[in-house]
Amino acid sequence: MQPIHVVGAGLAGSEAAWQIARAGVPVILHEMRPAVETFAHRTGDCAEMVCSNSFRSDDDQMNAVGQLHWEMRAADGLIMAMADRHRLPVGGALAVDRDAFPPP
């Protein structure tokens, strides 16, 4: 079976690679960092949170973003599992500890 190539190990690319691998399909995740630095990134980690540590509202009843969070959890998403594990108490939003968040 030919591997699927995912370009970019940000939040979406990391989640895509996770779901592909869980489906039993070989996957190769390509990321330019740490070889190429950017002004926004501080590390070479996959799924690094940049610009903000917030995933916005986590209300799955009254907010479309919160509903998306619910759907990603239902799909056993890696990003949401890590966000829940490293959640900070900030009311109705889902904010994470940026340093602890990136998946292993």
| Gyration radius from CA atoms, angstroms | 14 Å
N-to-C terminal Cα separation, in Å?
Answer: 26 Å
Shape verdict:
globular
Structural class: alpha+beta
Show unreliable segments: none
Task: Count the domains.
Answer: 1
Write down how many β-strands occur, each being a DSSP E stretch of 2 or more residues. Answer: 5
Per DSSP, the total helix count is 3
* H-E order: EHEEHHEE
Strand content: 15-25%
- Mean pLDDT across all residues, rounded? 92
Pick out its properties.
104 residues, alpha+beta, three-stranded antiparallel beta sheet, two-stranded parallel sheet
Describe this structure in words.
The radius of gyration is 14 Å and the shape is globular. Strand 1, helix 1 and strand 2 (27-30) form a beta-alpha-beta unit. It is α+β, with helices and mostly antiparallel strands and 104 residues long. The protein has one domain (4-96). The mean pLDDT is 92. The chain is 30% helix and 17% strand. It is built from three helices and five strands.
Give the gist of this structure.
The protein is α+β, with helices and mostly antiparallel strands and 104 residues long. The model has no long low-confidence stretch (mean pLDDT 92).
What is the element layout, followed by pairings?
Elements: E1 4-7, H1 11-22, E2 27-30, E3 54-57, H2 64-74, H3 78-85, E4 87-88, E5 93-96
Parallel strand pairs: 1-2
Antiparallel strand pairs: 3-5, 4-5
